[in-house]
Write a sequence for this structure.
């Protein structure tokens, strides 16, 4: 998993949450897609989600650099995964 380091976050315009999910397999799949396309990302909430035992409402949040938001969302749509995640309100038609 590529983690957005402090250096990358400082060089970018910040990080944007693009979606949430409680599906760790889906997080893994999208992480692999982002790695293949050299999209830096980080997953927040993965420890809380694992401890929650699948309780609804404890999701993992996928964060990407602001400059990669459109590319990341386009990749998600091209692979047909957009219906399996909760894209953040306001980004639904981006990408």
């Amino acid at each position: 998993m590529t983690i957005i380091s402090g250096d990358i976050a400082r060089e970018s315009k910040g990080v944007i949450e693009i979606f949430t999910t409680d599906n760790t397999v889906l997080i893994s799949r999208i992480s692999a897609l982002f790695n293949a396309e050299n999209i830096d990302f980080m997953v927040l909430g993965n420890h809380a989600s694992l401890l929650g035992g699948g309780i609804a409402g404890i999701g993992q949040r996928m964060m990407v650099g602001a400059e990669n938001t459109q590319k990341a969302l386009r990749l998600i749509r091209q692979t047909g995964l957009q219906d399996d995640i909760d894209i953040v309100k306001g980004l639904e038609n981006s990408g």
Q: What stands out?
A: Residues 24-36 form the longest helix (13 residues). Strands lie at 15-21, 41-44, 60-65, 86-87. Confidence is low (pLDDT under 50) at residues 1-12.
